[in-house]
Prior knowledge:
2 domains, 2 helices, 2,3-Dihydroxybiphenyl 1,2-Dioxygenase, domain 1, 4-stranded mixed beta sheet, Signal recognition particle alu RNA binding heterodimer, srp9/1, 8 strands, alpha/beta
Amino acid sequence: MMEPAKDSLDVGILVSNIEATLNFYQNILGLKFVEKIPGPFGTLNRLRFGSSDFKVIDPKHKPPKGPIGLENQIGFRYVTFAVKNLSKLCIELQSQGIEFFATERELPNGVHIAAVKDPDGNVVEFVERR
């Protein structure tokens, strides 16, 4: 069994347009830039959210885009950010014309959620436990 070395999980995504993606995650969502690392498959841009690393990879050879959406393909389908300001964040994202996958709503367990699409159409979920 694994023993965690930190209290978070890191994720990496391949992107089709590095400038649009970095603008979305850094300037719109507020992830902090940590470093840029050239590698054998492309350039990795390490961003940070809390103690999690969100690795945005600009591939040397862009593979074809697969099906988008939660129910269109097996595999990891979305990323979740736990936030403290969901309503305010949704207003900011709407004012910037960001496309919503799911508008803000409360689940039966009292958790509030919303989800948007990033520049490649990936689902980005926000969760606030009030």
